[in-house]
Amino acid sequence: MAPVVSFAEVSSGTLVVNAHVPVVETGGTCVLTATRGTNEVFRTVSSFADATTTLCDPFSLPLPSPSRGTWTVQIAYSSPQSTGSTSVEVTAP
User: Fold this and answer.
1) Which CATH number is correct for 4-92, 3.55.40.20, 1.10.1740.10, 3.10.310.10, 2.60.40.10?
2) Which among 29, 49, 65, 88 counts the fewest CB atoms within 10 Å?
3) Source organism's superkingdom (predicted)?
4) DSSP sequence for 1-60
């Protein structure tokens, strides 16, 4: 199951992303990888089942300075039952 990014923004040099997976299950993890040129940052968070989806805990991670430009953000989800990934581009002002 591919994650769905519901919010992605860079504010004051910090990347904030919210994502969910269109399946209801427990025991999964979500990994965010953000790349721009030779810069790469990542963060792993837990997920939890909601009434209709599985939510990734919100991502909030500082980007290396200068953070301006377009970042490719990949969210990968894995659990004992499902795996998937998606990517979006986020432009930092």
Assistant:
1) 2.60.40.10
2) 65
3) Bacteria
4) ---EEEEEEEETTEEEEEEEESS--SS-EEEEEEEETTEEEEEEEEEEE-SSSEEEPPEE
Three-state SS for 64?
Answer: coil
Side-chain-side CA neighbours of 9 within 13 Å: the count stands at 4
Calpha distance 91→27 (Å, rounded) = 32
Q: Point out the residues of the chain with pLDDT beneath 70.
A: none
